[in-house]
Design a protein that fits this description.
The chain is α+β, with helices and mostly antiparallel strands and 336 residues long. It is 38% helix and 20% strand. The protein is built from nine helices and 13 strands. The chain has helices at 2-13, 29-62, 82-111, 224-234, 245-256, 259-262, 296-304, 306-309, 322-332, and strands spanning 17-18, 118-127, 130-135, 140-143, 145-149, 156-164, 169-172, 180-182, 188-192, 198-204, 216-222, 286-287, 292-293. The strands form three sheets. Strands 1, 5, 7, 8, 10 and 11 form a six-stranded mixed beta sheet that branches. Helix 7 crosses helix 9 (322-332).
């Protein structure tokens, strides 16, 4: 089992990372359609900029004061031209209608797209300041990392149901699709079909409190067989009776603390729903929604006092002794 997990972790880390989130290099159909709108808008507004700027430069140069001009003489007073005024009224109106029409057509095409036969459903819930990720068809819950299969055959897509439990958040992975808000008491939807395997970086794009800038996420796009292996592993409960005495002692310590009121570990007495599901904590690449890389020292520091890494987060310091802290961390590191 541990060999399989090591293989899985190595495979996930071996995926290419797209750290520069360039919206002009989309890797999904919705992002590609939105890029075409952006290029059209930039092209039209660029032409307007060149024309208007050119006319301003020409006017400054053509009607500049020349040597010998009478400085007290006023320039000719021109009160307008009906033809010019009609032109600069009608042309902008036509441009606006063109942009509105193209945008409406693309928005409708994205929103009304029918799910293909191979559709993955994900429920994404925004919290201050982390992401809850649920796969209802597999009964899997995780946090801050969204794993999806790559659309290698052109008939695979992922549909996301977007919700919020506190304030307005906004889901945005720039190379995959435009941002969509997560609004309390409202359900929004979006779909993606990444065409390239890799790790794509995103974040909350709507100010949601003091740690808004640290509400990060990773979209892990995997080949179908690797995604199937990942979701099967995530569906497994944690070990109820750890063989390692140190891990067993740590489990007892963990279950004796208030951690179980906020966090869930499948297969144990920890059934909290306010914080991230920890059943497979160590399969994730980061801690605290992307604030820290996942390793022993960072995990220990986070459990000891989360406020040092993410001031204002709702996880308190439990004021554990060094021995108690080592026990809890030992158990958490077994959750793979």
């Amino acid at each position: 089992m541990y060999a399989f997990l090591a293989w899985l972790q190595t495979h996930a880390e071996g995926l290419p990372e797209h750290r520069i989130a360039n919206i002009f290099e989309p890797r999904s159909t919705p992002g590609d359609m939105e890029r075409h709108i952006a290029n059209l808008t930039l092209g039209i507004t660029g032409i307007i900029f060149v024309v208007v700027g050119g006319l301003i430069v020409y006017t400054i140069w053509r009607f500049r004061r020349k040597p010998g001009d009478d400085s007290r003489q006023e320039p000719p007073q021109v009160y307008g031209s009906n033809q010019i005024e009609i032109a600069w009224t009608v042309i902008p109106i036509l441009i606006v209608f063109i942009l509105i029409g193209v945008s409406a057509r693309v928005i409708a095409a994205i929103q009304n797209a029918s799910p293909p036969h191979s559709t993955l459903k994900i429920r994404l819930i925004g919290h201050q300041w982390w992401w809850e990720v649920e796969y209802p068809d597999f009964k899997v819950k995780t946090a801050n990392e969204i794993h999806v299969p790559v659309n290698a055959d052109g008939h695979t897509a992922t549909y996301l149901q977007l919700e919020s439990l506190d304030v307005i958040h906004s889901f945005w992975v720039p190379q995959i699709a435009g941002k969509t808000d997560l609004i309390p008491n409202r359900v929004n939807y979006m779909w993606i079909d990444p065409k390239e395997a890799g790790i794509f970086f995103g974040n909350c794009a709507e100010y949601c409190g003091t740690q808004h800038a640290n509400m990060l996420l990773r979209l892990v796009v995997q080949p179908q067989n690797e995604f199937n292996a990942w979701v099967a592993q995530q569906a497994q409960p944690a070990e109820a009776n750890p063989v390692d005495p140190g891990v067993a002692q740590g489990k007892n310590m963990f279950e004796s603390l208030a951690c179980v009121n906020c966090h869930r570990v499948q297969g144990t007495t920890a059934t909290g729903v306010f914080g991230p599901d920890l059943t497979h904590l160590m399969s994730r690449q980061t801690i605290g929604a992307g604030v820290l890389p996942m390793n022993h020292q960072n995990l220990r520091d986070w459990v000891n006092d989360p406020q040092n890494a993410k001031p204002g987060c709702f996880m308190p310091s439990m004021k554990l002794t060094d021995a108690e802290l080592d026990q809890v961390v030992s158990y958490l590191e077994s959750l793979r």
